[in-house]
Design a protein that fits this description.
There is one protein chain. With 374 residues, the chain is α+β, with helices and mostly antiparallel strands. Helices cover 39% and strands 18% of the residues. The protein has eleven helices and eleven strands.
Length: 374
């Protein structure tokens, strides 16, 4: 910087600061204040620096209000950050939901609720565990569902699925997907829409409330499906036997101890379901306590082997609760020629067994030569 430039900036500093001869500034013309009263200006208050108490009172309230608003926002969305046990959700909500539900992990089913089982014609959840979910979807939709699952999980998109039941029937149902955080597996919940019915709560009435087993009407339908499968089977395929078992607890309805009766039913239901093959259907009856369906039996020897498991469950219950069973057994296609006759003749067999005052089994077919007590 040159000497001339330094002098120039030095003079600017002096001018900005008031120069070297500073004095007290004053305003001699005060006439402007004469009109203060006309403009409602209080000259005495102009020089006073005061804050209203209201200002101080309002400030904490404003801060508190803002704090409450923030807290409210946090509380409003608090549930979004909460974890919940999937097991509890299944036990308390999903298992009894009237919407079809399935839990899928790595493309395989690990859980299916009663409603989903009902619309797909599944009688035992063990039939579907570790089975690919796509096996219950119409093949024409496999690629489409695979392409849309990502959007279903991220944006709640609904997918109009064509679900394929065990008997080949197609059920149209709109499904949604919920992602399950799992570091080891790709897991999600599939939830379908409510099944429309003409009247009443049909879905709920298809299962026994106490044991969770299918009721007699659903079981009866399963018997018809099993017989139809044999009737319409290709001629090149071997024909199988369909067997039904009616199981009655003598004088059960005359008992007055409700807790005792419920305990027997639950123990029997658990024992039968856990001991038999997955394709067997254990159901609650109306007149008799239990009905059991054995589809796809290759011969009577195979049936008798499975029937031994039923006898073991009955023996244990007879010892634990001092009860007597009457059992009726029948087969298709001999002697019964239809699903209707299969059940009707089994009922007759149960009634015949009741004539014996002991644990007794009545077979409709003499060839078995297994009549008698156990």
């Amino acid at each position: 910087m040159t000497a001339t430039e330094k002098n120039f900036f030095s003079n600017i500093d002096i001018d900005l600061e008031g120069g070297t001869d500073l004095g007290v500034s004053s305003f001699d013309d005060l006439s402007v204040l004469d009109d203060a009263a006309k403009h409602h200006i209080n000259l005495d208050a102009l020089e006073k620096i005061e804050f209203s108490n209201d200002v101080f009172n309002e400030m904490p309230m404003q801060k508190q209000a803002e704090k409450d608003t923030q807290s409210l926002k946090k509380e409003k969305h608090l549930w979004q950050n909460m974890d919940v046990s999937l097991a509890d959700m299944i036990r308390l909500v999903l298992d009894n939901s009237e919407r079809p539900v399935a839990v899928v992990s790595d493309d395989k089913i690990i859980y299916m609720n009663k409603t989903m089982m009902m619309i797909l014609g599944i009688t035992d959840q063990r039939q579907v565990l570790d089975v690919p979910f796509l096996s219950f979807v119409d093949k024409s939709q496999w690629n489409s569902l695979a392409e849309n699952i990502g959007e279903m999980l991220t944006s709640g998109k609904k997918y109009a699925a064509k679900l394929r039941a065990e008997n080949g029937k197609i059920i149209n149902n709109e499904i949604q997907a919920i992602y399950l955080p799992d570091t080891s597996h790709f897991s999600f919940i599939l939830i379908g829409s409510h099944i429309e019915r003409d009247s009443g709560n049909v879905i709920k009435n298809m299962y026994d409330e106490l044991t969770g087993l299918p009721n007699f009407f659903l079981w009866e339908d399963r018997v018809q499906v099993a017989v139809n499968n044999e009737i319409y089977k290709k001629a090149s395929l071997p024909k199988n036997i369909v067997a039904v078992v009616g199981l009655a607890i003598d004088d059960f309805d005359k008992k007055t101890d409700k807790f005792w009766k419920e305990k027997i039913l639950n123990d029997m239901a658990t024992g039968l379901v856990m001991s038999l093959k997955k394709n067997c259907t254990v159901a609650r009856g109306m007149k008799y306590q239990f009905w059991i369906l054995f589809p796809d039996i290759s011969d009577k020897k195979e049936f008798l082997s499975e029937f031994e498991k039923i006898k073991e469950v009955m023996k244990k219950a007879a010892q634990d609760y001092n009860i007597i069973f009457s059992v009726g057994v029948n087969f298709y296609p001999t002697p019964a020629k239809s699903a209707k006759k299969l059940i009707e003749q089994a009922i007759v067999a149960v009634e015949k067994a009741k004539l014996h005052k002991e644990n007794y089994i009545e077979f409709c077919e003499e060839e078995t030569k297994k009549k008698g007590s156990f």
